[in-house]
Amino acid sequence: MERVSLLGFPIDTYNIENALEHKGQVVTINPEMIDYALQHPEYAEIIKNAELIIPDGIGIELGLKILGFNVKRIAGIEFAKRLIIKYKGEPAAFVGAKPDILEKAVGNLKSEIPELNVIYKHDGYFDNEEEILSQTAEKKPVLVLVAMGAPKQEEFIYKLKTRLPDAVMIGVGGSFDVWANEVERAPEIYQKLGLEWLYRTIKDPKRFKRIFPALPLFVLRVFKEKLTC
Ligand code: UDP
After folding, report:
1. How many separate helices (H) and strands (E) can be counted in the chain?
2. Binding site membership of 185 for ligand 1 (Cβ less than 6 Å)
3. What is the rounded distance in angstroms from the CA atom of residue 124 to the CA atom of residue 54?
4. What radius of gyration do the chain's Cα atoms show?
5. Ligand 1 close to Cβ of residue 176 (< 6 A)
6. How far apart (Å, rounded) are the C-alpha atoms in residues 118 and 45?
7. Phi/psi of residue 11, nearest 5 degrees
8. 9 in ligand 1 pocket by Cβ < 6 Å?
9. Ligand 1 proximity of 124 Cβ (cutoff 6 Å)
10. Rounded Cα gap, residues 229 and 225, in angstroms
11. What is the pLDDT of residues 109-147, one digit of tens each?
12. Whole-model pTM?
């Protein structure tokens, strides 16, 4: 069992070590992304065409469990950090977040991993996408981290994919904010229990509307899928 299907979306069930061996577009999927993709077919196609789709978070883990697959979740931020360590020394591009956050995140990562070789960086607030895509591709990075949130980051990477066919490219959401020490990750107990989403929602109640109704709807859809299989 390596790739399974959840509501029509492929999910790769490798352990983290095996997942790190893959190249191409990496999607760290969650129920909100599936909800959005079910309403936006172009986005669904981007996800379905990703080379690696990792189950990020308890929602996907639970969904897979309902379908009878016992799969351990992989936190996107941890996977991204492992990629940075794996490819340290090789050219890396960082795109996304606010300018000061980006600088701080890269600075902190460099103090932790001095070999990190950032050959291109740009914040995530631009209206000249084509230019940013060309600039990124020209530098020929081996690793590309894009922190613009879903769906923007996956759309950006998808456009970059044909120009950088051998790179590993991952959408990392709010990870730059965490690496810049602007946003804390949930305490370990929340992480262990799969309740990071709850912690983040308590800290930032605006997030509530992102998980509702997406999360309960997701669980209902999965039960429906189970019944019809
Ligand atoms: N962001 C960006 N460009 C945009 C919108 C968002 O670079 O047009 C950044 C934002 O500054 C933050 C990240 O994208 O650093 C997304 O954060 P969010 O909390 O939405 O991500 P999550 O981890 O929840 O997917």
Report:
1. 13, 8
2. no
3. 23
4. 17
5. yes
6. 30
7. -130, 130
8. no
9. yes
10. 6
11. 999 999 999 999 999 999 999 999 999 999 999 999 999
12. 0.96
